[in-house]
Amino acid sequence: LLIIFDLDDTLIDTSGSITPIKLQDALQRMVDCGLKISDFSEAYEMLRRLDECSESSRQTLAEFIEVIGADLRFFEIGLKEVYENLSPDLPIFPLDQAIEVLIELKQNHDLALVTVGKEHQQLAKMKKAGIDTAFFSKIVVSEERNKKPHYQTIVEELYFSPSDVIVCGDRIHVDLVPARELGFKTVHMKWGRGLNFVNAKSDVDYAISHLTELKQIVTNVL
Ligand SMILES: [Mg+2]
Predict the structure, then answer these.
(1) Residue 98 main-chain phi, psi, to 5 deg
(2) Is the dihedral of CA 94, 96, 100, 105 positive or negative?
(3) Separation of CA 176 and ligand 1 centre (Å)
(4) 49 CA from centroid of ligand 1 (Å)
(5) 125 CA to centre of ligand 1 in angstroms
(6) Which ranges of 3-71 would DSSP assign to H, the alpha helix?
(7) Please, how many CA atoms are within 13 Å of residue 145, restricted to the half-sphere of its CB?
(8) Among 96, 90, 114, which residue's Cα sits nearest to residue 182?
């Protein structure tokens, strides 16, 4: 089989270890650049609340700017801080058992990774989390949110038929809907932002709360 993973909140704990800190950094950066807020910790609390039901940090920042009625240039400043500035001393952790599961699946299957973001930042996050790029036959970092063309290319390049492909990710619309359209099996990782989405049964083939559950699914699909 070919198993294609998402990175953030699927293999690494983005919402736990990165997002809260980056949202705070973004707020600080916006304030440094002239954003007027009456109270930093209140504004930060608002960001956190908005983020709880948001699809991405981008969406969180956009809503925040709209709610407080700030100039759009602050949105760009915050966005750049979140997506392009990764501090060298920010620790990033893999999800529980992620590396063990990759080692085990790699023995009998091809693995690939398709992630949305900036390439240097996504690769730096993997490295910090201890996830070796050598696990993956293909790694695609896309600045566009549309993963479908990348899924298609990978499957063609590695000569898999759609029924032998599994995609595992936390965001149903970004990670799994395009996979389903291509005839792949889909596994919803219910972590981080993945918890914000009600799992309509018809949207995905499997839903898991822990990566180790993937091993059983692979056996079922075979
Ligand atoms: Mg994700």
Answers:
(1) -60, -45
(2) negative
(3) 10
(4) 19
(5) 13
(6) 14-17, 19-32, 40-52, 57-68
(7) 10
(8) 114
Average pLDDT of the segment spanning 156-174 = 96
What residue has token string 């704990």? 13
**Mean pLDDT, all residues of the chain:** 94
Predicted TM-score (pTM) of the model is 0.90
**Ligand 1 centroid from CA 175, angstroms:** 8
CB 171 within 8 A of CB 190: no
CA 37 / ligand 1 centre spacing (Å): 31
CA of 58 to the centre of ligand 1 (A): 13
Q: How far is the CA of 34 from the centre of ligand 1 (A)?
A: 32
Pseudo-torsion of CA 199, 205, 172, 18, nearest 10°? Answer: 90
What is the 55 CA–ligand 1 centroid distance (Å)?
10
